Amino acid sequence: xxxxxxxxxxxxxxxxxxxxxxxxxxxxxxxxxxxxxxxxxxxxxxxxxxxxxxxxxxxxxxxxxxxxxxxxxxxxxxxxxxxxxxxxxxxxxxxxxxxxxxxxxxxxxxxxxxxxxxxxxxxxxxxxxxxxxxxxxxxxxxxxxxxxxxxxxxxxxxxxxxxxxxxxxxxxxxxxxxxxxxxxxxxxxxxxxxxxxxxxxxxxxxxxxxxxxxxxxxxxxxxxxxxxxxxxxxxxxxxxxxxxxxxxxxxxxxxxxxxxxxxxxxxxxxxxxxxxxxxxxxxxxxxxxxxxxxxxxxxxxxxxxxxxxxxxxxxxxxxxxxxxxxxxxxxxxxxxxxxxxxxxxxxxxxxxxxxxxxxxxxxxxxxxxxxxxxxxxxxxxxxxxxxxxxxx
Length: 392
Prior knowledge:
17 strands, 2 domains, alpha+beta, Creatine Amidinohydrolase, Creatine Amidinohydrolase, Chain A, domain 1, 6-stranded mixed β-sheet
């Protein structure tokens, strides 16, 4: 899948939609502005090279972005301004002092200043001690609320990111064979993602061995191992397209899978289908996890705390904001993860790749795709089938 002129992009209309939603909430909370970093800054800027901090006034003044001063050495800021159309106010800087200067310039230094996203104590303390007339407030919940529901433009980027991952799966299935080190397989998968138009930041997690598992520590150890016949490999997507993630999981067997692993993966499919029947506007995360746990028991296998039923978007995972959270009706059952219980709404993005644990408690298999919640159910991203691939 090569990138073409019809590749999805975010419009100025999408930018204005985000700004309007966040500004409305800032005014409701009495905040004069939001100072942001990390993915909350990306959400407002659409990704300006070298960006460190952003200031979004609650009125109609444009977003101001502090760019690492190293990025503007020997070039005019106009080069960066002309390279994108979301941000019109750039200022070089390195730390909180540039933010303080900009707040004073915008005459926001005596109001309530909201903070959201990757702001450390030194930054906070600098604002607190320098801007004695300001009140520092936490507005992180505003961003988690607004970012929970994805627009059609965002969904198009996430769909493309998942197709980027699909390209990696296809390449790995074609080239990965016993005797290849894990590092080479990962390199092939990442190269395929780049060729499919994925961001250079795209990464790929690859676990393999005679006992299948999905674990970041094991994936790191697998980089220097060589695949052996009879191994089961688990590939997890960290594909990116225009800053948005594509995230799901794929199993690949090197040689004919053991009957137990065939049986386990068939259980994965059955369990996933049971969970998908519950996915719709108005359902809850507890509904999904209860069905997952019950379906696992019905297949004779065990569930995992790492159920792999969660949301994502720019970040993996992303948790819904407080406007969607509700009390857990069965806290003793566990399994909800860091997000707790919440109500599903149309426009939420999910990775649903149920994890099945073998009867001996060692082998774990999972598989699935990404989807968007709709009013009547859900819609898949990409075209990849949920199946165990075999490489001989």
